[in-house]
Amino acid sequence: MRLSLFTVCTAALVLAPPLAAQQTPQPQPFAASSLEHDTLPLSGQFEGVYIRTGDSLLILVSAAMLRSDPESGQTRLGAVRAGLGESVADGTWNLAYASAPVPVDLSLSGGDAARLVTLAFLLRISPDADLSRYWIVFCLHDAVPGGDPLGFLHSDRGVFQQAQR
Length: 165
Description:
Blueprint: H1 5-15, E1 28-33, E2 42-53, E3 56-68, E4 75-87, E5 93-96, E6 102-108, E7 113-116, E8 119-124, E9 134-142, E10 149-155, H2 159-163
Antiparallel strand pairs: 1-2, 1-10, 2-3, 3-7, 3-8, 4-5, 4-6, 4-9, 9-10
């Protein structure tokens, strides 16, 4: 059986979903903070938007403020990494779907604060990942490779449920 080009194109138009049915991902706002409860050398507050598209999550930070602990002395931030926090059965959490580290070269003396320029993070995620199980986490890494994290910032654990409403 031979199909004409007209028949194939007509069938494709009939079977294709209408353009209006295809959804364009919309940026959703988030805020992440550790200012109220952090005992690590760095704490801060980030604000921005995230956009989910299939197998990726783009996190754009448009406002970022960091503060060093007054007792910590000199602190040198080397990189920031974004990921998704996930609850573990023992009451702790893991970092899932982490981004590549974004280099930052920032030195703060005890008690100093600084603002960062816009930061962008790309997380590769499973297309069928249920984001309602996760929350946004930022890890602040020491300039010395392999060192302990200097701090964590996290969004509300319901950040992705809020977008579904």
